[in-house]
Amino acid sequence: MNPKEAIQSYLFAERAKTNLITLSQMITVLSDLKGAEKSGAKRMFKLLVNAVAQDLTFAEKSTGSKEFLDAVRILDGIESMLDNDEFDDVSRAIGNAMTQATTPAQQGWQVLSENELV
Questions:
Q1: Neighbouring C-alpha atoms within 13 Å toward the C-beta of 93
Q2: Which of 8, 41, 49, 89 is the most buried (most CB within 10 A)?
Q3: Contact residues for 81 (Cβ-Cβ < 8 A; gap 6+)
Q4: pLDDT tens across 5-57, in order?
Q5: What's the fold here for domain 3-114?
């Protein structure tokens, strides 16, 4: 990985991690909602998960880091968990996706450090 690729990997991964943290915070709130409010929040949450997955797919196409696609595969399972009110499982899945997104950031940081750019 050259420094330019390292910067891209690092930036995409950091953005993914930020988005996944947001999802993690939202699922905590969503689990406490009731009735129509919960139903509407689930729909919005699914849209946001899909947007994060699309961003991860773009990151993989831009960088070639398979970990981004691994994170997408994890997020793909969230919809059925959400439909079954399995909020703890959703939270774990988000954490697993974050683990995948952390790897390209770490790899990018390593290259940047080795080239004395950070």
A1: 21
A2: 49
A3: 87, 89, 90, 93
A4: 999 999 999 999 999 999 999 999 999 999 999 999 999 999 999 999 999 99
A5: Four Helix Bundle (Hemerythrin (Met), subunit A) (1.20.120)
